[in-house]
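PT: before anyone asks, these are the final sequences, not the draft ones from last week. 675 residues across everything. Please model them as a single complex and drop the result in this thread when it's through.
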Amino acid sequence: MIDYKKELNPNQYEAVINTQGAQLVIAGAGSGKTRTLVYKVAYLVENGLMPSEILLLTFSRKASQEMMDRAAEILDKRCMNVSGGTFHSFANQVLRKYGRVLGYSSNFSIIDRADAEEIINLIRGELKLNKKERNFPKKGTVLNIISKSNNTGKSFLEIIENEYPQFIDEEEVITKLSSMYSKYKQANNLMDYDDLLINLLKLLKNEDVIRTTLSDQYKYVMVDEYQDTNIIQAEITCLIASVNQNITAVGDDAQSIYSFRGANFKNIMMFPKIFKECKIVKLEQNYRSTQPILNFTNEIIKNAKEKYCKQLYSEIESSTLPTILSAFDVYDQAKIITKKIEKFTEQGVPLNKIAVLFRSAYHSNELEVELKGNHIPYDKYGGLKFTESSHIKDLVSLLKVIHNHSDFISWVRILKWFPGLGEKTAIKLATDITTIGINELISSKFSKKKFYERINELHKLIINLSEEKDKLTNITSKAVKYYKGFFKELYDDYRRRSNDLETIKELSDKYSSLEVFLTDITLDPPQISSKQTNSENLVLSTIHSAKGLEWDIVFIISVNNGYMPDNRSFSSQEDLEEERRLFYVASTRAKNELIISYLQTGNSRRYSAYLEEDATFAPSMFLTEIEELEEIANKEESENSSESKYFHKLPDKLAEKAKVSKKFMESIESYFQNY
DNA sequence: TGACGAGGTGATTCG
DNA sequence: CACCTCGTCA
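LR: through. Structure below.
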């Protein structure tokens, strides 16, 4: 028996024991949101619900797994069997079962972003849109437009007008391309990430039997991170709860950071309107950070243009203020941060209690070099995933072809391994293979004699491996062995990459079905390449990937205009507001110490396109706009050499002289050009 | 016509 | 690091 009243504060307690009808929990950063959900799972199970009758939808698979583990710890093992996962993985489960209704067979494949881009590229080539005279959007851009339209319900025209006005004349062609893309996926039994959600919604909307069956099964529905759901997910949520209407949505409007994926925190505001008599509970006490850190984070969010009143407070006192330090440049910053980390470890702080956060994955490049040089082990989250590196995509393509012999995109990729066989020939051969069939191709008319032997050999291997019924590692091992025959020719740095091939073998070890393995690595791509990652290491992470996590000491680096906020966000107020929330999320990860660093010098070209011409490289507006900064944070200059005296902003008295100097420089430019 | 290496460039963020 | 473009060669 768990004493819920003792374990939880009054608001958390209320959120847990209220199990009838709809409930919205507005949970500020660090307010024990996860704890509340964990206890709620336990409470529901303890009070007689079958674990399978509870649906727990979370933002990442890891998050739901963790919650179930913790619930199992405080109650018992039954909590492990709660239904749950991400919206995407839930959609996958449902569609494997009922996808037939929509014309998919149950063994449909899920394509990742790279596959989707390849298909777009292919169609673009077919439509002869890749001519360089024509300034047609790149494949990634096309996919962004399509995906945004899917996830927001906005028309292509609207999106192009707002975000890509230079392509306004291409709207018609993009529409054409998009419909060909859909047809391609249908014809090949493929779904992309958006299709999973769209198709699930379609099922729930159009099929009364399926909707009723499912929503009857789930007696209680819980959705975490509701501020980061998009309109499709919100509708799915409502329909899945439509029979019993017992539902808890948890979220924080101040932490909405996924609008690029169509997330809309207005879902939170809509929720109580959709479910009548919805109870609203606010969790405002922060159990994570010290009061000085909260003073700082409250200031960040205070400047938000659209906000919903909520003032976080903490009972954790501390005399340590957040630190703001300025570094000369990225290299200087890398050195300073590394030194500080070393100092902390000397004081006995374990490395895994420290994290370095940044806006974009590549912002940590220089720091990573410095850390390696000083033998500080780290794990990096965010950015390129393991499965997105090109040698892993190679290998996975082979596995995909073994699973589905007419996977066109993967065939193209594999065929290009053969020396002398490029894009065009690969497309021709792959077309033949997937239309005529490889058996027929091999046995009869084969136009490209040159490659006959090699393709025949490859074909035999594929047939062989797709009949392999034993262990999945047998398949992956043989696939790796075959691939290694090309590997060294394909990559100069094959040594560095070669470990990853072993990792794929190890990853596949846990699986018995190739289909499940391929689905899993697409829906939940492993982040880190070295499998021996352990929790002892320092954490480097993008802010997005740090969501929901916490560390004793948090560094946020490169907090400059152009980096944080990212240069692209300067074009719209809304994007800028999201960047602010991002900075807020980053800062609220810190428990005891928050250290923010900005650069004095850098590449102002990064964002000058969006600002007035003479914009200088400057600390983030999110720092400079805080008026009481001096009182709530300590400032530190880089101790590094005399370089640190560099001014990031030209003193007024030098402005006139700077003009003279610049003019002179420009006047002599031609001499040197013609030199 | 197609393959392919060299060289430049510019980087969101995630399922 | 991945993508794009360009020049060269078969």
